[in-house]
Fold this sequence. Notes:
Blueprint: E1 3-4, E2 7-11, E3 20-24, H1 26-37, E4 42-45, E5 52-55, E6 58-59, E7 65-68, E8 73-76, E9 87-92, E10 95-100, E11 104-105, E12 109-112, E13 123-126, E14 129-135, E15 139-141, E16 161-164, E17 166-172, E18 175-177, E19 184-187, E20 190-195, E21 198-200, E22 215-220, E23 223-225, E24 231-233, H2 238-244, E25 248-258, E26 264-266, E27 274-285, E28 289-294, E29 302-314, E30 318-323, E31 336-357, E32 364-384, E33 386-389
Amino acid sequence: TGISSGRPICDVKDYGAVDDGKVVNTKSIQSAIDDCASIAGQVLLKKYTNGVYVSGSLWLNSSIDFHVEEGVTLLGSANKSLHNFPLTYSRREGTMMVTRASLVNGGKCLSLNTTSTQPGDNCLQWTKLGNVTLSGGGVIDGNGDSGWYEPPYTKVRPTLLGLFWINGLEIKELTLTNPPFWTLHPVFSSNIHIHNINITTFGPNTDGVDPDSCQNVLVENCYISTGDDCIAIKSGKDEDGRAVGIQTSNVVIQDMVFGRGHGISIGSEMSGDVVNVLFRNLTLDGTQRGVRIKSQAGRGGTVQNITYTDMTLVNVDTTISVTMFYSSHSSGVAPVFKDFFISNIFSTKVSTAGEFLCLDGSPCSNISMRNVTVTDFSHGFSCKNAHGTA
């Protein structure tokens, strides 16, 4: 129905979608997505009446721009039926399992080995996508506070964006809010650029951006304020994560502003390894922790070559938290923490300056702290089995 940014347009209205905030438009929007893939088009959600398109789970396709225009909201349906949010094979909190589909999904498991009792990825065939953009200036609202946080839904709450197996993913100029669970969760994806987005969440476990077994990730120029970790870089949990064996590597998080939240984190699910991560030029106000690297016995895996630099923190509980005691009651394969570089940190009005708490059998090694300044604090640093220079 037209051309925008050089792309043919698939306006969801032409497929029967109605932006009245009442009609559930899953089928119409999905038809637009499927049609647009063959022409590398833009799926357009445009304001015609009140600008609210209600939908259940949607599945993206390759070579599209999913464009939620300014003034428009894609709103997750309050009806939590399996028709609206079907069961799908996914990774939930680091473990491969069948759970509820996200509001917006990437690659899909087409064939699952249901007889396997082995840990790891038991999908026999995934759809794998390429060159997907989400953009437009509008809002994607998961309707998390519509009852997802209460039984019987507590354990099956879907993420807002569950973006599996996408090579070439750009997310820009959107507001993501009110997810039932984690907000933005790319998994097994690569060559990702997330920029100029606003994530504001309040519910339990509503992490901001959680790259999970992903490679070549750039997140920049965003504002994130959440009910859990603002950033949590992950790679699978315990035996299941080690069996999948896909690391997260080459991640840059830069030029960011953070409000509420539990930390700018790696872990605790890092069993497939997290390597080569750079956090730089970050401003935090009211975040519980600044630098946060967390794991526990049983995870295994390695976190290596991690840099946090040029950070300004105010009103945080703990400036630096590096711990292998995320759960102190765990046992099993120890994680490995090494080569952490923390520099040019200025933190004031804090409860605790920092902690480095590592296991007896797996000390943290080669930690370098340079030009770390903490003022107006109640408690200093506590260290256990941590080796390096400061």
